[in-house]
Inverse folding.
């Protein structure tokens, strides 16, 4: 029997918006610098305006949180952590996809990452900042935030407790933010130099000149750059795993039934990648449409990310079932009750939203037609993030609201300040993302240029046609 | 400050990676010294073809990393073991397993920041630094080769120009004084 090997899908397609010709290096530069150089358009300004309005409302509720204290939230004596930590874990989780794409996929030589790593990393940084904002918020007295650091002091030289996972978290999150930001910026320098050389007006020439650090693209610089990228990827890979592991320790090292679980680290990391890829897809599908980046962010990219969503979503599903099994198998009545209460207690709706969004919805991605369908992907990416928010809510609130003593059993209901603080993080995230998308290159031009040569021409024609076809169907 | 004497360079522009690599090999075999090559993206093994030393940044990163590890262990042991020893959860003052996460994070932090700082310093990169661009298109789609005429005194300028033209440059080489 004779087997014909199918031609591998090209990573960069033809110029589908312009005469359907082969994409050259100059096209890459033009396509990606275009939105940086053009004047801001109406659509962008409206999007930024909406984010700023949301941010303004969130800032008002944040003011109430800090001025009047966290009594403004729906917390009570039994439920001391609710929306704040749910949002914190949710945002940290979202951040993980950026590092996964830029570091883990680099180590695995997955070249398709080249066109999505820049914006995924930017998303990581903004998401981690949002997560950090909830840490500051839930402190109640953010002006004492430096107490979480081991700083010399006059309180009898009282130090932080290095046995506590909350202190580990301070180190993990701040290291993660710093390393991600540095990794992202080093990758930006060559592209900023490209913009600098193209800049015509003196202000952008000056600003991009300053930001590009005097990059000249010489052989030695590139050789060192590649080494930096490789080593940073090697360091970021265990780092990203450690961050969500430590976040899960915040719960796992406690003695609360429903939190006290050894399965948490791998389960949280899988969930983080799951929700992170969903957020990358949401943002990427919009960016690709608005900036006409279809030759670079192709259906192949979307399909690859959907495969990761399918795998991690299923891991999360197995983790949910394992938790139940262990609760039953442990023979601990408190543990068993915590899980029965999740399913059939007063928060049953949160539990079943989580189950259907996280376990059932990604199963659609077993079908290739679904994986390559832009609309299905967009809808499911949002569903997945709703589900992952509910996952954290279920873990945190349902485990807390029924204490060991039935007399302290209560419900948690959010106030408008809880909701407003969550909106604050959305406003902040999208404001940052829109500013990034306008003023910095959303795709790593230098890396896309390295993969141009491997984009086979005949295959590129075929897949560009498929892309056109997908667009026609949409209209 | 004493003004540096001007150096004269011959700049050859290539539009194809394989032509560039074969030109480098041929020109170097003929004894021509190439100052540097500027490319829009990292060309694989270009430093090897040019005979440059391999970068030792990875070793620097390792050294920064173990510095971080050491500092983290010293800091935690000093603070909880000597400066203000407290019994926390019945554990030892210096509870080694509990120190692992912070030690790991500080190792990664020091290794990354140290390596990136070394990278910037060794390349002379930094805010406000001016780039020496032989041809601005080297950040777009051209491969630019610079030859220092002062260091190649055994060839005349015309010979080098001819050598470049014979080896696939896409346009007439230009002279640039720096």
């Amino acid at each position: 029997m004779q087997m014909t090997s199918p031609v591998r899908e090209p990573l960069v397609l033809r110029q589908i918006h312009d005469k359907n010709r082969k994409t050259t290096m100059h096209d890459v530069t033009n396509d990606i610098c275009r939105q940086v150089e053009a004047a801001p358009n109406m659509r962008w300004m409206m999007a930024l305006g909406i984010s700023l309005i949301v941010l303004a409302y969130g800032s008002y509720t944040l003011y109430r949180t800090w001025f009047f204290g966290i009594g403004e939230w729906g917390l009570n004596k039994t439920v001391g952590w609710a929306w704040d930590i749910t949002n914190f874990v949710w945002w940290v989780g979202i951040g993980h996809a950026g590092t996964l794409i830029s570091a883990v996929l680099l180590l695995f030589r997955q070249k398709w990452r080249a066109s999505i790593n820049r914006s995924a990393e930017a998303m990581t940084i903004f998401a981690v900042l949002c997560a950090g904002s909830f840490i500051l918020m839930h402190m109640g007295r953010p002006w004492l935030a430096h107490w979480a650091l081991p700083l010399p002091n006059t309180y009898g030289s009282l130090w932080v407790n290095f046995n506590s996972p909350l202190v580990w978290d301070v180190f993990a999150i701040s290291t993660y933010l710093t390393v991600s930001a540095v990794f992202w910026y080093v990758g930006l320098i060559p592209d900023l130099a490209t913009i600098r050389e193209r800049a015509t007006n003196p202000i952008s020439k000056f600003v991009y000149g300053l930001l590009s650090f005097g990059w000249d693209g010489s052989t030695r610089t590139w050789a060192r750059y590649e080494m930096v990228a490789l080593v940073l990827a090697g360091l970021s890979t265990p780092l990203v795993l450690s961050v969500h592991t430590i976040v899960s320790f915040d719960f796992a090292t406690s003695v609360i039934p429903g939190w006290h679980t050894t399965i948490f680290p791998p389960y949280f990391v899988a969930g983080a990648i799951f929700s992170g890829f969903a957020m990358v897809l949401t943002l990427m599908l919009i960016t690709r449409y608005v900036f006409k980046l279809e030759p670079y962010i192709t259906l192949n990219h979307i399909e690859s990310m959907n495969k990761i969503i399918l795998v991690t979503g299923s891991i999360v599903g197995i983790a949910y079932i394992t938790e139940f099994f262990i609760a039953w198998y442990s023979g601990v009545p408190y543990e068993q009750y915590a899980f029965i209460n999740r399913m059939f207690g007063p928060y049953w709706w949160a539990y079943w939203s989580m189950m259907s969004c996280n376990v059932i919805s990604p199963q659609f991605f077993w079908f290739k037609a679904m994986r390559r369908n832009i609309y299905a992907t967009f809808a499911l990416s949002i569903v997945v993030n709703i589900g992952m928010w509910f996952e954290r809510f279920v873990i945190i609130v349902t485990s807390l609201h029924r204490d060991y003593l039935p007399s302290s059993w209560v419900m948690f209901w959010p106030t408008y300040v809880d909701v407003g603080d969550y909106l604050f993080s959305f406003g902040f995230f999208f404001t940052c993302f829109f500013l990034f998308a306008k003023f910095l290159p959303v795709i790593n031009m230098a890396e896309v240029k390295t993969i141009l040569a491997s984009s086979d021409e005949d295959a590129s024609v075929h897949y560009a046609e498929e892309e056109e076809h997908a667009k026609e169907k949409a209209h | 400050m004493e003004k540096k004497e001007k150096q004269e360079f011959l700049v050859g522009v290539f539009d194809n990676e394989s032509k560039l690599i074969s030109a480098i090999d041929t020109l170097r075999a003929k004894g021509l010294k190439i100052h540097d090559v500027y490319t829009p993206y990292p060309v694989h093994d270009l430093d090897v073809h040019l005979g440059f030393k391999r970068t030792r940044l990875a070793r620097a990163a390792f050294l920064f990393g173990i510095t971080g590890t050491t500092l983290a262990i010293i800091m935690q042991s000093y603070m909880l073991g000597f400066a203000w020893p407290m019994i926390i959860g019945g554990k030892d003052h210096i509870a080694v397993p509990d120190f692992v996460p912070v030690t790991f994070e500080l190792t990664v932090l020091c290794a990354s920041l140290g390596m990136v700082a070394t990278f910037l310093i060794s390349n002379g990169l930094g805010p406000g630094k001016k780039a020496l661009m032989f041809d601005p298109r080297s950040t777009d789609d051209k491969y630019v080769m610079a030859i220092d005429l002062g260091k190649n005194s055994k060839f005349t300028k015309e010979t080098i120009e001819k050598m470049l033209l014979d080896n696939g440059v896409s346009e007439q080489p230009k002279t640039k004084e720096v």
